[in-house]
Specification:
This protein is an alpha+beta fold. It has 9 helices and 17 strands. The protein has 2 domains: about 200 residues, C8orf32 fold (Roll); about 130 residues, Immunoglobulin-like. The strands form 5 sheets. The chain has a 5-stranded antiparallel β-sheet with strand order 4-5-2-15-16, with no helix packed on it.
Length: about 350
């Protein structure tokens, strides 16, 4: 594990938004969901994530091919749109849903200049109260508050607080793909898992960061998407999913960062047959060695090779599932006869593939 050490100073200044125009890229994506319906099922219900319209991305030419009754819905937590499909007395076997779309994505570039913001007021916190609360797996307890006390001290500037917590998580935990023989990710994206094991995947890292940020009084939300990985362009290989947090600062608005990807570039990783593919496919453009510039970049900036599927945790889907809320929706949620159907070969499988389009 890493030695616990963090600094702000020059690194904070290096993370300030660059003056160049944001990069832009265009992709044609195919998102497939295969649901294995068990024999004897009476009702299957499917919520399949659709790409969102956001400040950084525009969606066009969205087409849905679904063999059962379906329509578009929005959750009541964040307003994310999903494809909802259901069938009564379904035939045992596979339901195969395909969505295709074009996404134009801009690089997210934000100012992280502490002089351009101010401490949050009581009114700010009242308005943003929802984004200061814990979630099922994003906990705020005495241990989290103690870390915040030690790391943040009496600092009140939201950008400086965010950067201190970014640096702390960066030095505290290691992304599991660096040493997959020893480290694993949690199945749910958990603050406590990352805190206790000092490892995990993007959702574990960002659950921990979100817990710390909210405990420090920073309104924070988690975004779920996927990376369009260069080496997989045009290949019949799933792009998996990725997540990143956003914190809110007065006068600046929502600011994205990605401490999980920064962690990949914070070390000179010794690649071998066990970790090489995992490490290379954790980032949009591969791994070429330790890169302090990328560590600084990912505080306030995100590369354009992404698509956003949803925002938030503990989502209240529509129509209501049997489960009160759903942990997150980076891919899909499926119920059979009122019980969640697990992701996997015996339950459901999502596959995202893409080709890269030319931007005029």
């Amino acid at each position: 594990m890493k030695t616990l050490l963090f600094t702000v100073g020059a690194a904070l200044l290096a993370a300030s938004a660059c003056s160049a125009a944001p990069r832009v890229a265009e992709f044609v994506a195919k998102n497939e969901l295969t649901v294995h319906v068990p024999a004897g099922a009476h009702l299957v219900r499917i919520w399949f994530a659709l790409p969102q319209e956001t400040h950084e991305q525009r969606i066009s030419d969205l087409h849905v091919d679904c063999p059962i009754a379906h329509h578009t819905v929005h959750d009541t937590t964040e307003g994310n749109r999903q494809l909802y499909a259901e069938e009564i007395r379904p035939t045992a076997g596979d339901i195969h849903i395909v969505t295709t779309f074009r996404v134009r994505r801009w690089e997210a570039v934000a100012s992280t200049d502490p002089a351009r913001t101010r401490p949050l007021s009581a009114e700010d916190r009242r308005r943003m109260a929802y984004y200061l609360q814990p979630n099922t797996y994003v906990v705020i307890d005495d241990r989290i508050r103690g870390i915040v006390h030690d790391v943040v001290g009496d600092e009140h500037n939201p950008v400086i607080i965010a950067r201190k917590l970014y640096d702390w998580v960066l030095k505290y935990a290691d992304y599991w793909v660096k040493d997959p023989a020893r480290w694993k990710a949690s199945p749910v994206g958990s603050t406590e898992y990352c805190l206790n094991t000092r490892t995990g995947n993007c959702t574990d890292f960002h659950s921990l960061w979100t817990s710390l940020a909210r405990a420090a009084g920073l309104p924070t939300r988690m975004v779920y998407g996927s990376l369009f990985k260069k080496e997989l362009a045009g290949k019949d290989t799933d792009q998996s999913y990725h997540c990143w947090p956003q914190f809110w600062a007065p006068k600046l608005g929502w600011i994205s960062h990605d401490v999980a990807l920064a962690d990949i570039f914070d070390d000179e990783i010794r690649l071998d047959d066990k970790n090489r593919t995992l490490v290379q496919r954790t980032t949009p453009s591969g791994y070429t060695g330790k890169d302090p510039a990328k560590v600084a970049y990912y505080f306030g900036n995100l590369d354009e090779r992404r698509v956003t599927w949803s925002v938030g945790r503990d989502l209240a889907l529509e129509p209501h599932p049997a489960a009160r809320t759903v942990n997150a929706l980076p891919k899909a949620y499926v119920e059979v006869d009122g019980k969640p159907l697990a992701e996997g070969a015996q339950g459901w499988v999502r596959k995202l593939t893409y080709t890269e389009g030319a931007v005029p």
